[in-house]
Amino acid sequence: MAPPDGATRYVVDASAWIEIEGHRAQNLILKRVGELIEAGLLECPPQAWAEVKRCPEVLARIGQYEDQMVMNLRSNPAYLVLVGEIHHKHPQMCGARGRKNKGDGYVLANAIFGNGASTTKTYAVVASEGFVGRGKLGKACLEHGIKYLSLIQMLAREFPDDGW
């Protein structure tokens, strides 16, 4: 299903998926996340989705949506150049100098790329790494003009009647 024009599209980081596991409102969160995926409003790069393997309850409920949600832009040269630029500019956030390549750079690149590819959609990053200005991903989003939301903030925007 194509999202409506002007709708916010959310690029979800691994930290947000991990936060769902064991949350007191886990069932409602997973229901609402499923609705957002079905509406075409949630994306996740494969590098962040790989972390869901550590969350069996989350994977059991939303694993069926992997093909709809996991955006694989690996064959798009402009996206790959953007990923490289982000890794160069934010090496600690991306794990560029370590053994493990973190998904944060791909999450940020997906949001920036999405915003550049469309004038009718606004892409935002959803993560649970602290407030903007504290975590590395939050600081990078702020620097690049990308809206940064927590999982609960996203749910409150999309489902205000749920009392998040």
Describe the structure in brief.
The protein is an alpha/beta fold and 164 residues long.
Order of helices and strands: EHHEHHHHHHEHEH
Q: How many angstroms separate the termini? A: 26 Å
SS field, number of helical segments: 10
Counting helices, strands and paired strands, the structural category is: alpha/beta
Strand order of the largest sheet: 2-1-3-4
Number of DSSP-assigned strands: 4
Radius of gyration: 15 Å
Low-confidence segments = none
Look at the structure and give the mean pLDDT: 86
Give the helix level as a range of percent: 40-55%
Overall shape? globular
Sheet of most strands: 4 strands, parallel
Task: Give a verbal description of the structure.
The relative contact order is 0.18. It is built from ten helices and four strands. Strands 2-1-3-4 form a four-stranded parallel sheet. The chain starts with 7 loop residues before the first strand and ends in a 6-residue tail after the last helix. α6 (77-89) packs across α8 (104-117). It has a domain at 73-164. The chain has 164 residues and is an alpha/beta fold. The mean pLDDT is 86. It has helices at residues 14-20, 26-38, 46-49, 56-62, 66-69, 77-89, 91-94, 104-117, 136-144, 151-158; strands at 8-12, 42-43, 122-126, 147-149.
Key structural traits:
164 residues; alpha/beta; four-stranded parallel sheet; globular
